[in-house]
Write a structure and sequence with these properties.
Blueprint (H helix, E strand, L loop, with lengths): L3 E4 L5 H13 L2 E4 L8 H13 L18 E7 L7 H9 L6 E8 L6 H11 L7 E5 L2 H9 L2 E5 L5 E5 L5
């Protein structure tokens, strides 16, 4: 069965990366959306404060039924070295027990402790988390992904990986 990508993106960078991820893996896709969408100012002030305190957000129900999937990939940007409140809410609210859940953390200059925090949250929710992959969300990296020079794969060790691709395919 194909995996489900569960993505939260405020600026659109993580969403673009997840589009490439879905194409590489043949995965289904759904988005985490907050009930009251934050402005960038609100995200960079109150949202960051809540992320640092590991608080929950307030999210809408997902469009996809998570219970139909054994494998998920939770994709999130980094907010002040942490995961956003909306992602905390998803991990704590949805039934992940017994599922294999990979993490994908996008960042502009370093993931801080977000990768560790995401893995810890997923495992506390009862999921098996083989790894959390950090991906630079620069324009150049997104361009390389869209051009097929970089592709996502589940490698022979069962981990989510970013590999050199064949842009001619």
């Amino acid at each position: 069965m194909k995996p489900l990508i569960v993505c939260f993106s405020l600026t659109g960078h993580t969403r673009k990366i997840c589009g490439c991820l879905a194409k590489s893996l043949g995965a289904d896709y759904t988005e985490i959306k907050e009930i009251s969408r934050r402005s960038r100012v609100s995200a960079y002030t109150l949202g960051v404060y809540d992320a640092i305190r590991h608080k929950n957000g307030n999210i809408r129900p997902l469009a996809a039924d998570v219970s139909h999937y054994d494998r998920l990939i939770v994709a999130t940007p980094v907010w002040a070295g942490n995961i956003p409140p909306a992602v905390n809410d998803f991990v704590r609210e949805y039934e992940l027990h017994g599922k294999t859940v990979y993490g994908l953390v996008t960042h502009a200059g370093g993931p801080g402790q977000a990768m560790d925090f995401l893995k810890q949250e997923l495992e506390q929710a009862g999921a098996s988390c083989p790894n959390v992959l950090g991906v630079l969300s620069s324009r150049e990296a997104i361009h390389e992904l869209k051009a097929g020079r970089l592709v996502f794969a589940l490698d022979e060790d069962g981990k989510l990986a970013l590999k050199n691709g064949d842009p001619q395919k």
